[in-house]
Amino acid sequence: MINGERTTSRPLRWGMVGGGRTGQVGYKHRTGALRDGTYQLVAGAFDLDADRGRDFGVNLGVAEDRCYTTYQDLIAGETGREDGVDVVSVATPNFTHFEITKALLNAGIHVICEKPLFFTVAECEEVAALAAEKGLIVGVTYGFTGHPLVHQMAAMVAKGMLGDIRIVDMQYTHGFNAGDDDSADAVKWRTNPATAGATFVLGDIGTHLYYLSEVVLPHMQIEKLLCDRKAFIPSRAPLEDHATVLMHYDNGARGRLWVSSVNAGNMGSQRYRFVGSKASIEWSDSHPDQLIYQVQGEPERIMHHGMPYLEAESLAVDRMGALHTEGLGDSWSNIYLWIAQAIDAKTRGDEDFLKTHHYPGIKAGTEGVRWLENCVRSADAGAAWVAYE
Ligand code: NAD
């Protein structure tokens, strides 16, 4: 169980680029990072609007002279100080991730970056090489995968409790873009290929599904996929507001994934069903406390987080204990803690720890971008089956 006790050498001096007052995801980062005293927020270039960013940073408790106008100023200011930041989170629109991450790494600062990590696998590989050369960590905030029931699912699959995995069924949908008003800042950049990259909903929400499936099914690789995508609001083309992806895995399993932001009226968010030869499991972040476990020929079971009957891997990362809600904020806290432990190990030169330590890092970010590249290649070929590259 995680109880806030320190597991790293010292609190990390932490900064943020983006995630300002009007940003959608900034508070999730702060919820994750500031929970256990593992990070201290000491600097930021929080906002494109520098005055608003400074005012916001001061209200968060950051010293005014460490609320910077741009990320370049942040790097210049922080590298000039003895107590400069150890790590910076990048919570800005997609097109800025690559340039900001590279600049931070070049300045010797660890990075925690939003998904989708970059636009291309080639960019991911360039940054992976740079981080390795500099001895720095790149974490990626796939925030849902810290939940203890995700790790329960992974443990059940690893221990053979489902048998051989046959079917993977995943959905992340909402209806917030069912209408054609794309004027809000956060929608405007998401629906423009220059600022979002080659995808809208596939990158925005589909990468969460894909990474969670990698955590639960690390032994399975996609062999080929077919992606069919469509912009129901034509002005969003060539980006999609809806997509379905079929996947064939190397163990013979079949996968089906649906992402959409035009699923009018739907607030279901994410749903996962993993079907094996003996049993199935199903989890949704609408009811994150519960995992449905169905063994063929037996009554359905609903497993609750934090209960002693769960696997040790799940109980080890539980925070609230059974009876009390464990949700997205707790999951983000685990992700931030695991990244802090990776940074701490890297700083101590403990490569043995890093060999087995689980956290979403540069590889997870790269595989998300690789999956997107394959989806786009298939969709652009007229929803054709393509070999996974
Ligand atoms: P947003 O448009 O709501 O907010 C972006 C924030 O970044 C704003 O505060 C803006 O002023 C600031 N900003 C933009 N460019 C900047 C720059 N160059 N320097 C400093 N600040 C800058 O966007 P959002 O929805 O918060 O998304 C940001 C990123 O987070 C995207 O990559 C998105 O895909 C990702 N995201 C991830 C999750 C998740 O669950 N992990 C959830 C939502 C968004």
From TrEMBL:
Pfam families from the entry? GFO_IDH_MocA (PF01408), GFO_IDH_MocA_C (PF02894)
InterPro entries in the cross-refs: Gfo/Idh/MocA-like_OxRdtase_C, Gfo/Idh/MocA-like_OxRdtase_N, Gfo/Idh/MocA_oxidoreduct, NAD(P)-bd_dom_sf
Start and end residues of each Gfo/Idh/MocA-like oxidoreductase C-terminal domain: 156-386
Query: Which GO-annotated molecular functions does the record name?
Result: nucleotide binding
Q: Which domain of life is it from?
A: Bacteria
Looking at the record, the residues that make up the Gfo/Idh/MocA-like oxidoreductase N-terminal domain are 12-142
Q: Which residues form a coiled coil?
A: none
What PANTHER family does UniProt report for this protein, alphabetically?
CONSERVED EXPRESSED OXIDOREDUCTASE (EUROFUNG) (PTHR43708), OXIDOREDUCTASE (PTHR43708:SF3)
Name of the protein this chain belongs to: Putative dehydrogenase
